[in-house]
């Protein structure tokens, strides 16, 4: 562990019942911290007992939201081994997002090393039950106590770990989605392509209103014309229209999802016609009217593949296919989780043993 200091916890928490993990409620015995200042750069990487952070109330993150995070999973295979899935992509994405938020990026190779080391220390926390994983939440925050608006001069990087089950209560049962016509998540040129906490804050009110109407998630439309599909906020979106699989392009306002890239790669390997192109609510309504809206699904680290059974737009309900998980969604789910749990061969170098 060369330059990562380790301060073991004096006591260990009991491990949770794997049947009722839910998502993001339980945290492990240790966390990782590192600090940045102008003189030393990123330094002081250490794994310490899990606990509250000490933060000055004037810390910039608390006032101006100079923050971003990542979502990664480690899986326990049937052979008992623990593996990370495409984590280098998350490390690269965090470095790119940090630059957008004027946060000094962490070298992706060093970030990967820190995460690997923390998961190694906490490997007993990686659950074994089917569909479970250890969710990894790296976060970067501005800590300088200063109330002027400018990039902070000091930062903390931390990583916490949480054994998780399914993200949605529905698991992989198809969800109903509300197409949001009033609120906007992100405009091009803003922070939509960055995993900034601010994007999630912007999504909460629409999410609450949708939930009251019985919808699990909000599908965001573009900020200018309110016509073009963007993303679901916790997931990227795919639609199977006739024989084409369509996903909105990375235009600067949606997240470059790792599971999105994984799905595109697999679908193309299987010979499917995949288009990264703008897709509008009008096109989807017309496809639905023709009976060609065959599948809709979201992709994300937390949710993996989440099939959608209904889109509701301005009170009009568009039922997708026969309302069940579609053929491609199922194949993607089985293949991605098959690779993640070591049941299928990792021919693309996506796994990293810890
Ligand atoms: C993820 O899929 O990891 C996410 O970050 C989505 C959400 C839980 C914020």
Automatic annotation (TrEMBL):
Q: Which cofactor does it need?
A: pyridoxal 5'-phosphate
| Pathway noted in the entry | Amino-acid biosynthesis; L-leucine biosynthesis; L-leucine from 3-methyl-2-oxobutanoate: step 4/4; Amino-acid biosynthesis; L-valine biosynthesis; L-valine from pyruvate: step 4/4; Amino-acid biosynthesis; L-isoleucine biosynthesis; L-isoleucine from 2-oxobutanoate: step 4/4
Q: Which InterPro entries match?
A: Aminotrans_IV (IPR001544), Aminotrans_IV_CS (IPR018300), Aminotransferase-like (IPR036038), B_amino_transII (IPR005786), BCAT-like_C (IPR043132), BCAT-like_N (IPR043131), BCAT_family (IPR033939)
User: Secretion signal: which residues?
Assistant: none
Return one GO MF term.
L-isoleucine-2-oxoglutarate transaminase activity
The record's keywords, sorted A to Z, are: Amino-acid biosynthesis, Aminotransferase, Branched-chain amino acid biosynthesis, Pyridoxal phosphate, Transferase
Identify the Pfam families for this entry: Aminotran_4
Q: Which reaction does it catalyse?
A: L-isoleucine + 2-oxoglutarate = (S)-3-methyl-2-oxopentanoate + L-glutamate; L-valine + 2-oxoglutarate = 3-methyl-2-oxobutanoate + L-glutamate; L-leucine + 2-oxoglutarate = 4-methyl-2-oxopentanoate + L-glutamate
E.C. number, please?
A: 2.6.1.42
Q: Which parts of the sequence carry N6-(pyridoxal phosphate)lysine?
A: 195
GO biological process assignments:
isoleucine biosynthetic process; L-leucine biosynthetic process; L-valine biosynthetic process
Give the family from UniProt: Belongs to the class-IV pyridoxal-phosphate-dependent aminotransferase family.
- Role noted for this protein: Acts on leucine, isoleucine and valine.
| The protein's name in its UniProt record | Branched-chain-amino-acid aminotransferase
């Amino acid at each position: 562990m060369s330059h990562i200091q380790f301060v073991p916890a004096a006591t260990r928490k009991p491990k949770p019942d794997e049947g009722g993990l839910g998502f993001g409620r339980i945290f492990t015995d240790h966390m990782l911290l590192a600090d940045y200042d102008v003189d030393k750069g990123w330094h002081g990487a250490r794994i310490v007992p899990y606990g509250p952070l000490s933060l000055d109330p004037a810390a910039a993150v608390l006032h101006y939201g100079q923050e971003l995070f990542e979502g990664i999973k480690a899986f326990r295979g049937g052979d008992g081994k623990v593996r990370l899935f495409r984590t280098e992509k998350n490390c690269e994405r965090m470095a790119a997002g940090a630059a957008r938020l004027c946060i000094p990026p962490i070298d992706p190779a060093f970030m990967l090393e820190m995460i690997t080391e923390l998961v190694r220390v906490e490997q007993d926390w990686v659950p074994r039950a089917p569909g479970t994983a250890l969710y990894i939440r790296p976060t970067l925050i501005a800590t300088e106590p200063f109330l002027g608006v400018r990039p902070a001069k000091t930062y903390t990087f931390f990583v916490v770990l949480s054994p998780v089950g399914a993200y949605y209560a529905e698991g992989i049962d198809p969800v109903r989605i509300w197409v949001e016509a009033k609120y906007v998540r992100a405009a091009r040129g803003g922070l939509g392509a960055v995993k900034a906490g601010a994007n999630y804050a912007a999504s909460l009110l629409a999410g609450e209103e949708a939930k009251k109407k019985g919808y699990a998630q909000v599908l965001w439309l573009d900020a200018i014309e309110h016509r073009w599909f963007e993303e679901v906020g916790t997931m990227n979106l795919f639609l199977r229209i006739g024989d084409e699989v369509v996903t909105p392009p990375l235009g600067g306002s949606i997240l470059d999802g790792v599971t999105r890239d994984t799905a595109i790669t697999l679908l193309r390997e299987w010979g499917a016609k995949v288009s990264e192109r703008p897709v509008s609510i009008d096109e989807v309504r017309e496809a639905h009217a023709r009976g060609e809206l065959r599948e809709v699904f979201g992709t994300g680290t937390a949710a993996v593949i989440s099939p959608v059974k209904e889109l509701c737009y301005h009170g009009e309900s568009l039922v997708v296919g026969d309302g069940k998980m579609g053929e491609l969604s199922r194949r993607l789910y089985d293949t991605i989780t098959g690779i993640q749990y070591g049941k299928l061969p990792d021919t693309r170098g996506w796994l990293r043993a810890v």
